[in-house]
Write a structure and sequence with these properties.
It is a single chain. By secondary structure, this protein is α/β, with parallel strands linked by helices. It folds into two domains: 131 residues, 3-Layer(aba) Sandwich (Rossmann fold); 189 residues, Rossmann fold (3-Layer(aba) Sandwich), CATH 3.40.50. The chain has eleven helices and 14 strands. The strands form three sheets. It has a seven-stranded parallel β-sheet with strand order 8-9-7-6-12-13-14, sandwiched between helices. The protein has a five-stranded parallel β-sheet with strand order 2-1-3-4-5, with helices on both faces. A two-stranded antiparallel ribbon has the order 10-11. The longest helix is centred in the middle third of the chain and has 20 residues. It is globular.
């Protein structure tokens, strides 16, 4: 039976050459169809109204306004998943991350390089488009009237010596919610694996520093974990926790099939060191990285949480962990953070 083209995509791109490339690459996927191409922000807003696409890709640099303006104008009227596809240098601008805060679901760098690299790019992009199109509803951040999750998280009495976090698509905005909920005085270090393209990693660190009360830095080999600090894994490397709360950063070979940085690797290493004093959190993301690691944390007596379906952009990673029995409780990122604060505060009162 032939698959129907069920996801319609609007491409917003001012370069005709880049637009043709995107049209061709997206149209090759039998699940996807290009509904239209907009060369300006004004045209993008008009076509979004007329065509009502399932997903929109947006270049950040347009001749009349920025891609951020497109995102704000489109989402003001209705929710539609938006992927930023941009070649904007990330060492001097936070525009891509402001776009995430405004409601964009994901950011990927514009394609370039060999034909093999182009094939890999479109395999990844098209999978992201298909997953976003199939999501049942917008994430919580796009729904101001959605009530808070009613699921209650039961404490297990242990304190928190370290928090590890894994996230992918939809993760950056969930990270802002989670880290903000912890607060700048949270008395334990936070170590983060966020799947994001290499050109955006340093920009992500700067953005999280601006948007959250914690001190956020790019993790380096040999760093000693400190309370009130968050450490973000660098690209194409595994980030592990060794004895004494020391970080190990190991570059991976280009031909490795498992994603790097790996949430599984981080979680499993942390579970061996902190055992019941570890809290592990899986946020929005595609795939299943972190599920096995979260199960390892739970088997060692640690506290395990995952973002709930209603607030996720993509429920893939939390869902995979839930199916394995690795998740103690699902909740919105801020509610998970609030619960961890309560655990810490209760432990401090017990030791007074």
């Amino acid at each position: 039976m032939t698959k129907a083209r069920w996801a319609r995509v609007l491409i917003v791109e001012d370069s005709p050459t880049a637009a043709r490339l995107l049209v061709d690459g997206i149209s090759r996927d039998p699940r996807l169809a290009v509904a239209g191409v907009a060369l300006t922000a004004t045209e993008a807003a008009s076509l979004a109204d007329q065509l009502r696409p399932d997903v929109i890709t947006v270049d950040l640099m347009l001749p009349d306004e920025t891609g951020l303006d497109v995102i704000l104008r489109v989402l003001r009227k209705r929710y539609v998943p938006i992927i930023v596809v941009s070649a904007l240098p990330q060492n001097g601008s936070s525009l891509a991350f402001r776009s995430l805060l405004a409601g964009a679901a994901d950011i990927v760098p514009k394609p370039s390089g060999s034909p093999a690299a182009m094939v890999e790019f479109f395999e990844d992009l098209n999978e992201r488009i298909a997953l976003l199109a199939s999501a049942a509803a917008p994430p919580l951040s796009a729904r101001s009237s959605l009530p808070s999750s009613k699921r209650k998280i039961q404490p297990n009495g242990a304190t928190v010596g370290c928090v590890v976090v894994g996230a992918s698509t939809g993760g950056p905005t969930a990270l802002v919610e989670f880290l903000s909920g912890l607060g700048g005085d949270f008395p334990a270090p936070v170590v983060v694996v966020q799947h994001i393209a290499a050109p955006f990693v340093e920009g992500l660190v700067r953005w999280l520093n601006q948007e959250t009360p914690l001190s956020v830095k790019l993790a380096s080999d040999g760093d000693v974990l400190e309370p009130g600090c968050a450490y973000v894994a660098p690209a194409s490397a595994d980030l592990l926790i060794k004895s004494g709360g020391r970080l190990s950063v190991t570059s991976v070979l280009p031909d490795r099939t498992h994603i790097a940085p790996s949430a599984d690797a981080l979680f499993e290493s942390a579970a061996e060191i902190y055992k019941s004093r570890l809290a592990a959190v899986l946020l929005s993301g595609m795939g299943k990285d972190g599920a096995a690691g979260l199960l390892k944390v739970r088997s060692k007596g640690g506290k395990t949480f995952a973002q709930d379906r209603e607030s996720c952009t993509i429920f893939g990673m939390p869902d995979a962990a839930g199916r394995m029995g690795a998740v103690e409780a699902f909740a919105e990122p801020r509610r998970i953070a609030a619960h961890l604060r309560k655990l810490v505060e209760r432990s401090e009162r017990m030791h007074e």
